[in-house]
Design a protein that fits this description.
- 2 copies of one chain form a homodimer.
- Chain A is 74% helix and 0% strand.
- Chain A is mostly helical.
- Chain A folds into 2 domains: 1-49, Arc Repressor Mutant, subunit A (Orthogonal Bundle); 52-196, Tetracycline Repressor, domain 2, CATH 1.10.357.10.
- Chain A binds a DNA duplex (30 and 30 nucleotides) through residues 1, 3-6, 9, 30-32, 40-48, 51-52.
DNA sequence: AGAATAATATACCGACCGGTATGGATGAGT
DNA sequence: ACTCATCCATACCGGTCGGTATATTATTCT
């Protein structure tokens, strides 16, 4: 046995669990398979996490929420022209994401589809992430209205809800069709929708 | 034991499997639970279906495809003004569907999300249903163009792909939020998108 | 240095799963 | 009425799952 590194072990398990869950879903992800990739065993896992359920929640909070925020919210929040940032993201998000995302889909959406009707803790944590994303887009639309870019008759909250819904829908359909081509044409249509919310069109 | 009715038994099992899969997903749906609702046993099931896999495929082909076609394609195909039929469906589909659809989501989308990356037979059969739906909407848009309702610069195939994607996205998000309200506002935005494809806007 | 505690490995358990083997009941054909 | 294929129930199997009990090793504290 090597040196014991609790924090690193915990993180190794979290990452492996994330990958396994992303590939197979939460319920089909087996503890044994998660551990086989790492050099660790059940003793380590059940020392850091009381149950598989807790491990799943930790993956959501500490990995998925974090990554999604960094990828989809931060660029918009940090931009002075959030609508431009949003439009840029819609078109170029497929280039900023690991290659397997196309075939495996969005981890957030996958888990929501699988677990939200089954477990209310999963549901609330996943919905918090979704809400955060939606709020960001709503903020972008409101800011766009203040800047005169977005038409004043647009309802930012409703439009933001639709954008995240359509976005996840595009990812899901592209995953089923196993087609990056389909994803891009689909996101191009979403791009056109957002443009249709802009003033002077 | 009662009188033997092979066709009815097969159909009973198919329906029970459909409900169980709709509630829990394919992998989490257990043979025992499927049968417990019906009065039948494994002997009956494995007489009519060689494996759980074959049962799942039969559910897709004989139930899901059928229902989706009846609900979402036939009204459009049979209408003389398909765009109006499409817009009507987008707004009123939530009233034409069993109550549990809101919390359980679309059976087609659920299965696509779960199984398409895992099994190519599931994927191809599910994609065939999706393709059929998309083709219907593409046909509606093309017909709309011929009737002068839809702008000529609209790409019917791309727009149809986006509509089904966004549609499934709306259902999925509404399922996670457990909110019929969210579903309706979301579909209203999809409605507005389709209207934005119409001429004279 | 010694004691206490944290961290990890190993072996094991009961529950459940999909699937099978077998046999009995039913109905159709002759 | 006898045969035979269809239909279905029951008991059982091997395998996998999440989880536990326990022992051992590493670290930290006194």
């Amino acid at each position: 046995m090597d040196i014991k590194q609790p924090d690193q072990s915990r993180n190794t398990i979290l990452q492996a669990a994330y990958c396994e869950i992303h590939r197979k879903g939460y319920q089909a992800a087996s503890i044994a398979d998660i551990l086989s990739d790492t050099g660790l065993t059940k003793g380590a896992l059940y020392h850091h996490f009381p149950t598989k359920h807790a491990l799943g929640l930790a993956v959501i909070e500490e990995i998925i929420g974090d990554r999604l925020g960094r990828l989809l919210s931060d660029p918009i929040r940090e931009s002075e022209k959030p609508i431009d940032a949003l439009l840029y993201l819609i078109i170029h998000v497929d280039q900023q994401v690991p290659a397997d995302y196309m075939e495996l889909g969005c981890p957030l959406n996958n888990l929501m589809q699988e677990m939200s009707p089954l477990d209310h803790e999963f549901k609330s944590k996943l919905n918090a992430i979704l809400r955060n994303w939606q709020d960001t887009i709503e903020w972008a639309l409101s800011t766009g209205q203040a800047q005169g870019e977005i038409r004043p008759d647009v309802d930012p909250k409703a439009a933001a809800l639709f954008i995240v819904s359509a976005w996840e829908g595009c990812v899901g359909i592209a995953k089923n069709l196993q087609s990056g081509e389909a994803f891009r044409t689909c996101m191009q249509q979403l791009h056109d929708y957002v443009v249709s919310l802009c003033a002077g069109r």
